[in-house]
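User: Predict the full complex structure for these chains.
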Amino acid sequence: MTRSLLTPLVASLPATVPFIGPEEMERRRGRPYAARLGANESIFGPSPRAVAAMQAAAAETWKYGDSTSHDLRAALAAHLGTVPAHVLVGEGIDGLLGLLVRLTVGPGDTVVTSAGAYPTFNYHVTGFGGEIATVPYRDDREDPQALIDKAREVGAKLVYLANPDNPMGTWHDAATVQAMIEAVPEGCLLVLDEAYVEFAPEGAATAIVPEDPRVIRFRTFSKAYGLAGARVGYAVAEASLIAAFDRIRNHFGMARISQAGALAALRDQAHLAWVRAEVAAARDRIAAIGRDNGLSAMPSATNFVTLDCGADGAFARRVMEQLDARDVFIRKPFVAPQDRCIRISAGPAAELDSLAAALPGALAAAGRG
Amino acid sequence: MTRSLLTPLVASLPATVPFIGPEEMERRRGRPYAARLGANESIFGPSPRAVAAMQAAAAETWKYGDSTSHDLRAALAAHLGTVPAHVLVGEGIDGLLGLLVRLTVGPGDTVVTSAGAYPTFNYHVTGFGGEIATVPYRDDREDPQALIDKAREVGAKLVYLANPDNPMGTWHDAATVQAMIEAVPEGCLLVLDEAYVEFAPEGAATAIVPEDPRVIRFRTFSKAYGLAGARVGYAVAEASLIAAFDRIRNHFGMARISQAGALAALRDQAHLAWVRAEVAAARDRIAAIGRDNGLSAMPSATNFVTLDCGADGAFARRVMEQLDARDVFIRKPFVAPQDRCIRISAGPAAELDSLAAALPGALAAAGRG
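Assistant: Here is the predicted structure of the two-chain assembly.
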């Protein structure tokens, strides 16, 4: 490639990738995992009605998807008590975050996030030339006041909060998040990532006020709805901000089958309730497995549990690697002091049995003691 | 929305959209189309094996797609006689074009294309702040020499050629395109859009020399493979250019079902051959329908036929509108003098019967006389 072909910005970007996927890791290790507990997917699966809807839509895949995702947006708007002008459907929260950053961040602009929070957001910010300012977690939770203070200090365009949080699983109550919304500085937008909100206890989610220009909210079908591979996320925000995405988004980017699957999944709230119950039970089991091995569990409002390995990041990394060697795929936080933990997705009994069987040996091999 | 939230570039962008989709048009007109012949979809459908593969993959949609599309890339590389390092899979050519423009074009950069060529490419260029220089079609074909001359004149980063061409359906032989590749100026890249290449006659496609740094080639599963709604396109180029996409792409953006569908479709070359034969027959039928109504057909190497309505753009627009009023969805070129034409996708007999029934009345109502 002629070096001069790339823009100066792109030429300056690192070749790093936010996450290596489990299939790629399986190819590198040369054998499959027995338990896939690292990507916070919903191993409990999507609604059977969503599966049926996708199967029915398969033969119609010669048609492009509806460029406005009209039916899904309408259903989401009704579900959320708003109108479609406040809702945008896109290719997962990752894709929508990329578009939001492109809309708002260029060279010279700064965003604020927590050190160790969702790396794909940072990937997009760096990719569009923005600067990232961080504040530390406080007591293993994101720190709304510190985020707001930093946003004010640096004149941030965006300030990111995941509630509930990934990778820690912790959360803030609605009053705390609402106070954060009220405190967003002029000219700044709160990026409220609610990928895991369906798993949160009552009272953790703020009321949606879609006209509020201070916050954009992201939700997804990848987690509780079990459709990670379909790539369907959505944003809820003030209508003119939603409309601005139309200036840059890939209008025919949504897969038609995915639109059908998400619509059917949304309509099956009974399946969602079942998944929530299964996830709650799995969280308890993961915490118990940790306890049996001397590891304490973070409280979780998500479909994963973060276990404190009780030492430093290097030890936790060895535990993760030893679980990998025992065919259990997990991930871990990567910034101190949260990097002392490992992060384990909820799953059915068979997967958690694999975890329970592997963890004692992994801890021993990691050199605890 | 606080106006200052948007970057100056985004704030300057128009709210226009390259295409209104047929579902949105159906909602606006208040009733469905009888014949969907405007989006160059393959109404003949995908391979039944691809449908079966997608149906089988539906229950696995709780997993994210493979971030490297490993199996599909490997199969494509083998199919093309190269290695996966030269192949990138992405969310349709539209998505890949957006990424390519982002890699290479910023404010102050210029690209070259033909006036009236694929508008989504222009949409991306404008969206990233680039300037567009155009040359006219010559005899209803893109003009390789003029494109190269203009690229040299303006110092273009990219020069775009669709072969076969959309919206005219015309094409150049391999020798002409290869000569264009040889003439690409230093510091410029030929964007060779081969979305319709599977429909082209023998000898229209240049040999793929994946190490050649002067050209990036785009192909898709949306047309001949009948998977428009799955959103799977691919690029073939020099390895370091392919690798550069990894710095900015949405790594987990591919739908898992789509990956499975495309892989199965690629393996069913017999279905592809059947589609090619059906399309060839449908092209002849569309040309005959045109002839019966006094309209001449452009020669076509695609899955559509462009009919010359024999007057100006306003007349052709009225014909299109009158077909719409008769429940036949088509599109048309939008830049003179090509805008004197209408563009009709190949389809099965029932759809073409609808066209044949509607066209005489549409022409009369459009005021031919």
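The two ends of chain A are 52 Å apart (CA to CA).
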